[in-house]
Write a structure and sequence with these properties.
Lyase 2-enoyl-coa Hydratase, Chain  A, domain 2, about 50% helix, 2 domains, 2-enoyl-CoA Hydratase, Chain A, domain 1, single chain, alpha/beta, 11 helices
Amino acid sequence: MSSPVLCEIAGGIATLTLNRPAKLNAIDYAMADALLAALDRLETDPDVGAVIVTGAGARAFSAGADIAEFSRSVAAGPNTAVRDFVRRGQAMTARLEAFVKPVIAAVNGLAYGGGCEITEAVHLAIASDRASFAKPEIALGMPPTFGGTQRLPRLAGRKLALERLLTGDSFSPETALELGLVNQVVPHDDLLPTARALADRIIRHSPLAVAGIITAVTRGLNMGMAEGLQMESEQFARLVPSHDLREGLDAWQARRAPVYAGR
């Protein structure tokens, strides 16, 4: 059987493809576990500076969780449902959010439920003009469980997020852009080239500095200003003895391009 998550590495960028196109790339437990395993491998791969996540096929990024599978967990009771479904999904989105290399969603179609939550969790997102978004969990009689009640309000604000969460209505990529869910909407055929170009603009810089910025921003969002500033200071202090900071400063003063370790 084909893997539920495909991985291709080229030019310092890993592309992870959610690979259940016949099921609109619905996230079953095997896919969530495979995505986590792929991220574990890529985190320590010196040849990878950024990750793109997209969906297989022409219709969907991901239509959300595999309802048939998690319904069986719900039938087994709250302990099983929370352990197998909620914790697994939250671990997946938390891993994407805190990943030390930039993760870019290339949203190529439907991004409903868990697919929308992946988009919320990653650092950056580009949407095809054919993409569509929704928070449809309320139609199943439940709230989002992969972090959607927490991340969307942080991105869009409380009232705009609650409108999406409480109605379950689908919304366009242009609305996703207005909500801060994606960074850009592009013609469908330009989606992956645009995502790769964005990744290239990031990985030309120091990987240590990139990781420090991601860590400071991700953790700082859940802190007060004083704690966030302390986090920022700590990330800078980690870089002071590094080759990358010395090289960056030397290259700037010499008016040349810096050469970072592993690049």
